[in-house]
Amino acid sequence: MKMTTEITHRYFEFSPKTGAYYYALIAADSKQAAINTYYHDISDRDDEPDADCKELTSAEAWDKCKSADDVEGELSIEEELEEFEGNGVILWPMELIQ
């Protein structure tokens, strides 16, 4: 499966390797926007004040999405692409990554 649509966001991965307590793959327009989303939707800044992230290429991020289990098994490829290209949290928690 290959991405064929235009990339509109940057992708940031939070993981224990980057000092984050929880795994998350976030689409955002900037690193700071990704960090803000992480603290707003995933973790608490008081519990984890210094989480950092690694920027991934769109291909790397798409590969992470493709390798994640669709827990409910309900997303079509079009829905996966739509979710991938939207702003916000794409993958979470770490158990979703193979």
Brief description of this entry?
By secondary structure, the protein is of the alpha+beta class. It has helices at 31-41, 58-67, 77-85; strands spanning 10-14, 24-28, 54-56, 88-91.
Strand order of the largest sheet: 3-1-2-4
Query: What gap, in angstroms, lies between the N and C termini?
Result: 17 Å
Structural class: alpha+beta
Mean pLDDT: 76
Count of individual beta strands: 4
Helical residues, percent: 25-40%
Contiguous runs where pLDDT drops below 50 for at least 5 residues = none
Number of helices: 3
Structure commentary:
- The structure is a single chain.
- The protein has 98 residues and is an alpha+beta fold.
- It has helices at 31-41, 58-67, 77-85; strands spanning 10-14, 24-28, 54-56, 88-91.
- It has a 4-stranded antiparallel beta sheet with strand order 3-1-2-4, with helices on both faces.
- The radius of gyration is 13 Å and the shape is globular.
- The model has no long low-confidence stretch (mean pLDDT 76).
